[in-house]
Structure formats: C-alpha cells, structure tokens
Protein: Sodium/potassium-transporting ATPase subunit beta
Organism: Lates calcarifer
Amino acid sequence: MSGTKEEDRKGSSEWREFFWNPRTHELLGRTATSWGLILLFYLVFYLCLAGMFALTMYIMLLTLDDYKPTWQDRLATPGMMIRPKGDQLEITYSVSETESWDDFVHNLNTFLSPYNDSYQVQTNDNCPPDQYFIQEDSGEVRNNPKRSCQFNRTVLANCSGISDRFYGYDRGQPCILIKLNRVIGMLPGKDGQSPYVTCGAKREDSDKIGQLEYYPPNGTFNLMYYPYYGKKAQVNYTQPLVAVKFLNASLNTDINIECKINSNTLSAGSERDKFAGRVSFKLRINDK
C-alpha cells in the first residue's frame, strides 16, 4: 500500500516538474528562449503565407474587369422562366376562390412595377425597334453607364394589369409572363428578325390548351433590348417580357405546357439540357 502511494506521489511530482521545472526554468519542456524562438518562427511563417495569399489575390483582381466577366462559359441557348412562379412551376387555382389566385396577382403587380410607363420614360430611351442597341467603348474609355431601351408595361396590353387588374385570373383566362435569362453580349437574332416565343401543350394535353394570345404581338423579344452589358454597366436595363394569355383552357384538369424560344441564331435545346431555351409548367384552372 505504501509503495502505491509513493509511486503516485512520484508520478504527480514528475508531471508538475514537466509543466514547470523550477530548477531549469522550463515550461512544458522548453525554456523561455526556446518558446520565444518557436513562436517567432510560426509568426514569420504565417505572415509570409498571408502575404503570399494577399499578393496572389491582388494580382488576380488586376486581371478582372468590373463590368464584364473575363471568362464567360455559357450555354449556347439561355434558359427561360415564368411569372408568377407558383409551386414548382405549377399554376393551380380556383376561379371562384379569390384567395387561391390573389398571390399570383400580387406577384405579377410587384414584378411589373419597374415596367410602369412613367418610370420607363424617366430612366430609359425610346429606341428604334428591330435593331441592336450597341454601345461600344472607345478603346480604354468606358462608355458607362450604358443606356437601356424602354419596355413599357402597356405593351403587354390585356396582360399588363392596367385594363384588367386581375390579369384574367378571376375569369379563368390567366396571363403568364415569360422572360429569357440574361446573358452578357448575347445577340439572339440576325437580319432584323427578333426571337419569339411559342407555347403549346404536351401531346397528351393538346386538346385542352385552347386559344392563346401573345403580347407583344407574335410573342417577340425585340432586338433593341440586346446586347445586355451587365448589371453594373447597364444599371437601368429592363428585361423584355412576353405575356401569354390562355383564353379558353379546359377547366378542372391538368394541362402540361411547354414554351420555347424560336431564333435564327440560338440553337434549340437538347435532351441533355431540357431547360435551354424553353420552360415547362403545369396549369390547372378549377371552376369551384
């Protein structure tokens, strides 16, 4: 028993002596000079690492353009999106239940507020249609900020929310807005031919979709809204829209719809990328 206590005291004494040895003035086995040198080494080491990282970031930032991506790896055809979105690209509502479509109307009102004619007249140019609005830089002299063309809300006619503040949702004739994703420098048409949108039902629902109306006429994205120069260079850019109005779609049934872009410069989407140049969504209009 006494041997065990003596061993415990010896072990405790060795541990205390390792932590602080009063004879050699060592802390954890190192003298103050040794600790100072090793801390100085790591301080210099990490300062050098931080300096190399900062220098690398500085050199990299010198190669970047504030207004245009240095490298732009993009798809041959941009994607499309609809408004209002709905849940997972589904527009489902009941004509007789106001609360079922009120969020859609609110979503469209909010989205279209920057397109009000009064705002567009103040901030953007009245451009000649059917031709690109090209604003080139003069060598090293930046032509910034670049101007943008007006897209007036009234162009959407019956889907503008002005003459019909419910966008047709209260009458079972809903409006869907379509936009083409922004791509810097994209020229989506040639020979004065603007790209346009067409919508149709999937094969199994072809007899349910009914008649459609497009605004602007023929569902065009006019060339005057291109090219896009980027958010920082073209701060007031207003993205063009196409509105599709469903005049007599079948009620109380799911209708699977696909809208796609048609252009003489943009290639059609492939099976590898089903969202390039098109968007699919489901529409269901209930009468109760």
